[in-house]
Amino acid sequence: MSTTYEYVPKPALVKGDHDFGDITDMICETPLQKTPPLWYVAFGAANILLLVMLALIGYLFWEGTGVWGLNVPAGWGWAIVNFVWWVGIGHAGTLISAILFLFRQDWRTAINRFAEAMTIFAVMCAGVFPAIHVGRIWFIYWVFPIPNQMAMWPNFTSPLLWDVFAVSTYFTVSVLFWYVGLIPDFATLRDKATSKLQKITYGIFSLGWTGSFRDWWNYEKAYMILAGLATPLVLSVHTVVSFDFSVSLIPGWHSTIFPPYFVAGAIYSGFAMVLSLMIIARKIYGLEDIMNVDIMEKMNIVMMATGLLVAFAYLMEGWTAWYSGYIYEQAIFKLYVVGPYDWGFWILMFCNVVTPNFLWSKTVRRNVTLTFIISILVNIGMWFERFMIAVASLSTDFLPSSWDYYSPTWVDIWTYIGTFGLFFTFFLLFLRFFPMIAIAEVKAVMPQADPHYYEENGSNDHGKSGDNELKSNND
Amino acid sequence: MAQIFPKWVDRIPRRLLVGIIVILNAAVFGVWYFFSPEYTDVGYKPEQPVPYSHKVHVGKLGMDCQYCHTQAFDSKQANVPATQTCMNCHDQVKTGSDSLKLVRESWDTGKPIEWVRVHNLPDYAYFSHKAHVNVGVGCESCHGRIDKMEVVRQTEPLSMSWCLDCHRNPEQYVRPVSEVTTMGYDPKNQKKMGQRLVTKQNIHPPTYCQGCHY
To answer: Is B74 contained in some domain?
Structure first.
């Protein structure tokens, strides 16, 4: 009991010598300035890809799903793989904004706005695939329980229907959550705007925010309630997505480990995507003091933890196959490893099992280039995970005589690439016109926000990280 | 700082919210009601090439449906009669009638009369008259009181939910097979009789998709 511990203050979350005004200026600069020419180049490229996607969807509607590489045992191909992949990516945002908010993880403020935007656009990309894969698109409204003259209701016992509700609820709550957080920042932009158009546009979206005590009171309550609503959704959405597979009886799908394994995988890929985008954006927009290396390291830790959970789940799949004594489960596991799609399995093993282990090293976690490479590898790995689950399990099912090798057509491939056009079109619009960091929230976690903060070393030295014991009160 | 917006703008969000809710509900109701065959199809009453009156032939003269629609009990279709059937009587009755000019023409040339189909099911719905009339679904249950129609019109929606009304509760609609062609059949004990008929004839109308769509 006699041991004494030296108090180590937490490092400041925002690096550099910034006061509140600096932060406002830094973040408001991008939306209010003139559009940089490079943005047009990027936006144009994204638009072209988006058009490719739309054209191919039109082609699909005209010709039918025969233009995809589906065959008889493999009735689910890239469309489902891409759907699960994009939905998975769309998990980081709400995890960061809701769960980390409820756990008082202040570092989330640097990336929450950014990650939520990514979430919303990723879910939009995901939503494209289940909608277009139905074959007869004009009946898509059948997924909604609308009273009709056919006395026909959706099949409420089908996980595919739960999926519709899970994803649409998630999307709605994510958008609301994102928007509520944006209101005070839109008001900041409205007040800083010089042109009439900007004033009016940001004015409309800030809903008459005055910054009064009552405004803040309502805002904080609404934000807290939405965080509470969104938290179970983070876990439920991918759980329901995993039901699409695990409720059926296909070997390799019918497994109780699927829900937690899918959720872990989703967070894993979501954090990877946030990191990939953040590393580029912070460089371009000069926000390295806010989206700093400390934040990146924390995200890397989350990514490593979920990555190892996913690796554990792979291990458990092998164990379950062996221990169950169920020959079909054993056969499918063998076919993963040395079957027709074994190349996919080994890409997956490398990207998802080997890669996160690099993050045990603090040097790697704090290295921007290596983190970027790892985040890309993780996203590739997670795509192949879904590919293995959906395609490999289906195309080698119970009856070897009906096995068939699945390969995508050019339409499959370009539709997938096209979704990046959709994603980046929206993401670039977000970067251009939205405050990409939650201005008000970042200020609240700065040392200066502490009521006991004094500019002890004179005004030239305020806010320097880690040298002030009193700053530690903000945790 | 000057105000950007006038004061009335404050009222917009609330009105917008209420408006959206109202519009969405109206849209659902609109599709549910106005897109249904009950609204679009009931009352369809095309003009026929020959002004044939069911009211006269069935209502007044008391002819049985099967005199003309001979195949209803034996095949998928309740056929429209050939000109021969008309001429069975009309080569002796009203031989000079103007209304029958087309019938006589058809009789002379051998070219059939082009009747207009009134009750038209979609191609993806398989319907068999034989399966229905032989277990006691009355003609009038689907076609209405033909004996009162000068010109035949559609009286029932023929929508899927309408089919299912009977497929789910056949005892409320079936009658003895001997009464199938009766018009204005009104048993006092439909429930009891229906129940008995369903049990006796082992009636299990399909309510799964491929019962009618295959």
So the answer is: yes
Per-residue pLDDT of chain A (475 residues; tens, 9 = 90+): 577 888 777 778 888 778 888 888 888 888 888 888 999 999 999 999 999 999 999 999 999 889 998 988 888 889 999 999 999 999 888 888 888 888 888 888 888 898 999 999 999 999 999 999 988 888 888 888 888 888 888 888 999 899 999 999 999 999 999 999 999 999 999 988 888 899 999 998 988 898 899 999 999 999 999 999 888 988 899 999 999 999 988 888 888 899 999 999 999 999 999 999 999 998 888 888 888 888 899 999 999 999 999 999 999 989 988 998 888 889 988 999 998 899 999 999 999 999 999 999 999 999 999 999 999 999 999 999 999 999 988 888 888 888 889 999 999 999 999 999 999 999 999 999 999 888 888 888 887 787 777 665 544 444 444 444 444 444 4
Same domain, B28 and B129: no
Round to whole Å and give the CA distance between A214 and B133: 73
How close A85 comes to chain B (CA, Å)?
32
Which among B1, B3, B4 is the top mutation candidate for probing chain A, defined by the most A β-carbons within 10 Å of its own β-carbon?
B4
Best residue of A144, A148, A149 to probe chain B, by most B CBs closer than 10 Å: A149
**Whole-model pTM above 0.90?**
no
Q: Are A148 and B161 a contacting pair at CB < 8 A?
A: yes
Q: Tell me, yes or no, whether B136 and B126 share the same domain.
A: yes
B107 and B149 within one domain:
no
A147 contacts B28? CB cut-off 8 A: yes
Closest of A60, A180, A182 to residue A129, by C-alpha: A60
Same domain for B131 and B33?
no
Q: What residue ranges define each of the domains in chain A, with the CATH number in brackets?
A: 31-138+159-443 (1.20.1630.10)
Domain match, B21 and B103 both: no
Number of domains into which chain B is organized? 3
A200 touches chain B (CB under 8 A): yes
Task: Cite the DSSP H helix spans in A133-250.
Answer: 159-192, 196-205, 213-246
Residue B92 per-residue DSSP state = T
Concatenated DSSP letters for A207-226?
TT----HHHHHHHHHHHHHH
B28–chain A nearest CA distance, Å: 7
- SS3 assignment, position A38: helix
**CA–CA separation, A56 vs A41, rounded Å?**
23
Nearest to B37 among A149, A200, A207 (CB): A149
Say if B3 falls within a structural domain. Answer: no
- CB neighbourhood size of A197 (10 A): 8
Nearest to A200 among B4, B37, B160 (CB): B4
Range of the domain at B93: 81-114
Nearest to B159 among A147, A150, A200 (CB): A150
Q: How far is B95 from chain A (nearest CA, A)?
A: 47
